[in-house]
Design brief:
The structure holds two protein chains of two kinds. By secondary structure, chain A is of the alpha+beta class. In chain A, 15% of the residues lie in helices and 35% in strands. Chain A has a single domain, classed as RNA polymerase II/Efflux pump adaptor protein, barrel-sandwich hybrid domain (OB fold (Dihydrolipoamide Acetyltransferase, E2P)). Chain A is built from four helices and nine strands, in the order E-E-E-H-E-E-E-E-E-H-H-E-H. In chain A, the strands form two sheets. Chain A has a six-stranded antiparallel beta sheet with strand order 1-2-3-9-8-5. In chain A, strand 2 and strand 3 form a beta hairpin. Chain B is an alpha+beta fold. Among the domains of chain B are: 132 residues, Gyrase A, domain 2 (2-Layer Sandwich); 74 residues, Elongation Factor Tu (Ef-tu), domain 3. Chain B is 19% helix and 34% strand. In chain B, strand 18 and strand 19 form a beta hairpin. Classes of the chains: A alpha+beta, B alpha+beta. Chains A and B meet through strand 4 and strand 6 of A and helix 7 of B.
Chain lengths: 126, 355
């Protein structure tokens, strides 16, 4: 069973988002890391990049395939977790501790559209 | 969707399953990295029962197989296995296969699962004038590939009496009272055996292997292993439009053979493509990515790419237009928006440990 912390918000593309005022922290869910398998490469955006809701903000690659990362909201990249580039396997061992980017929202109404843990859980049934 | 005789075992082992060549196949069990390492350093096993087995029997069995393949089969010693492309008259590739010279009048051909029907129709259409009986026994056999440096000692513990065959040879034998065909072949670059038997026999053998601690391995690790040692995969480096010469398989086209299908198109000619081995220091080349020269002109395309577990780097095979092959041997690969410098390799990325 995939771990789905109740305090986070989610996208249907299997990213998680932690809300803290106008800053949201984004990563991939336990279900996502488990589906991908051994994660070996992460490509992140640059601080200052503007990203649209559902636009790609990076790429995560397993041995087998490359998957785009989709932004939960429209906003600006204010911080990236550069340590992940050297230790992409942390996404497998600790998906909720391994954040990828922090975004500053430019459209706070979008936050309402993110899924709750309860609404996200059915998307993790194989 | 077909299932192999080991489907229930794969489900019980919590394998990730996916469709492959019409079969629901295990892609990975514990994880790709662990499975690659098990085979490079220890021992692992693949269920490859989806592959096809044809038998050619009769007086002309050996000369017929020699005629349909580009490699030298007639000249191989009794008991040898021969890897070869199967080509049309125009040199294009129907499939690549291994032909096993089991006896004077008995040859087994093992073909790719996705090509069973295509190969069968082609081979069957070529048999006139040959005194042979051709049978497609793909659905009768299950097949395990046990691979890795500890294969031989594992087979001994499992009760196989004769495990001394040379690399690329095969013989008929008994295990646990049942008929099996053992071949010292594989697709990993490591020592290992492929074991053909009835479904019942192979289900029992798989279960004994699991009890013996052999690591179950899926098709994802198989792809990494074959790419690390630069073995081509049909549908990637070979296809209906490419010739063996395009895929750097000139060594499998034997000009000294007077007669074989495709000879006029393949002997004394130069290929339009060159297969190159490239790696990246950062990022992973994937199938379909563009290959560029140092001036950033497009010169070819990646046919297979992955992360090498042994090297910890992205590696790939790519087909480059021969007339655009850069003399300075400088290559770049377009990875999404970025153009990355690639390393050009003249040897396989990894040396397998096969005997």
């Amino acid at each position: 069973m995939a771990n789905i912390p109740a305090e986070l918000r989610y996208t249907k593309e299997h990213e998680w988002a932690k809300l803290d005022g106008e800053i949201i922290t984004v990563g991939i869910t336990d279900f996502a890391q488990s589906s991908l398998g051994d994660i070996v490469f992460v490509e992140l955006p640059e601080v200052g990049d503007s990203i649209d809701k559902e636009g790609t903000f990076g790429v995560v690659e397993s041995i087998k395939s490359a998957s785009d990362l989709y932004s939960p909201i429209t906003g600006e990249v204010v911080e990236i977790n550069e340590a992940l580039v050297d230790t992409p396997d942390a996404l497998n061992s600790d998906p909720y501790g391994s954040w990828m980017v922090k975004l500053k929202t430019t459209n706070p109404s979008e936050l309402e559209e993110l899924l709750s843990a309860e609404d996200y859980a059915p998307l993790c049934e194989e | 969707m077909s299932r192999t005789s080991l489907f229930e075992q794969h489900v019980a082992l919590k394998a990730k399953l996916a469709p492959f060549a019409g079969f629901e196949m295990p892609i990975q069990y514990e994880g790709v990295k662990a499975e690659v390492i098990a085979i490079r350093e220890n021992v692992g096993v693949f269920d490859v029962s989806h592959m096809g087995e044809f038998f050619v029997e009769g007086k002309d069995a050996i000369s017929f197989v020699d005629y349909i393949v580009t490699n030298d089969f007639a000249g191989a010693e009794m008991g040898k296995a021969v890897y070869s492309p199967l080509c049309r008259e125009d040199g294009t590739t129907i499939d690549d296969l291994i032909a096993y010279k089991l006896a004077d009048q008995k040859v087994m051909i093992c073909v790719n699962a996705a090509n069973i029907d295509k190969d069968w129709n082609w081979i069957d259409s070529q048999k006139s004038g040959f005194d042979i009986e051709l049978t497609n026994r793909s659905s009768e056999f299950s097949l395990l590939a046990i691979q890795g440096p500890k294969t031989e000692e594992t087979l001994k513990s499992l009760g196989f009496e004769n495990t001394s065959a040379e690399y690329y040879s095969a013989f008929e034998s008994k295990w646990n009272g049942s008929n099996v065909i053992l071949a010292r072949t594989g697709y990993t670059g490591e020592d290992g055996f492929e074991i053909f038997g009835s479904h019942e026999t192979i289900v029992k053998l798989w279960s004994d292997m699991m009890n013996e601690g052999v690591t179950p391995c899926g098709l994802a690790s198989r792809d990494v292993l074959r790419l690390e040692v630069c073995y081509p995969l049909y549908g990637h480096e070979l296809n209906d439009e490419l010739t063996p010469l395009d895929a750097a398989l000139k060594w499998t086209v034997k000009a000294k053979k007077e007669k074989f299908i495709g000879r006029s198109a393949l002997v004394d000619t130069t290929s339009k493509k060159r297969l190159v081995k490239l790696s990246l220091d950062k990022g992973i080349p994937r199938e379909g990515y563009e290959v560029l020269d140092s001036e950033e002109n497009s010169i070819g395309i990646v046919t297979s790419g992955t992360m090498s577990v042994v090297l910890g780097k992205g590696i790939c095979l790519a087909l480059v237009d021969r007339d655009k092959f850069p003399e300075n041997k400088e290559f770049k690969i377009q990875v999404r928006k970025n153009i990355m410098n690639a390393n050009y390799h003249t040897k396989a990325f990894v040396n397998g440990g096969h005997k």
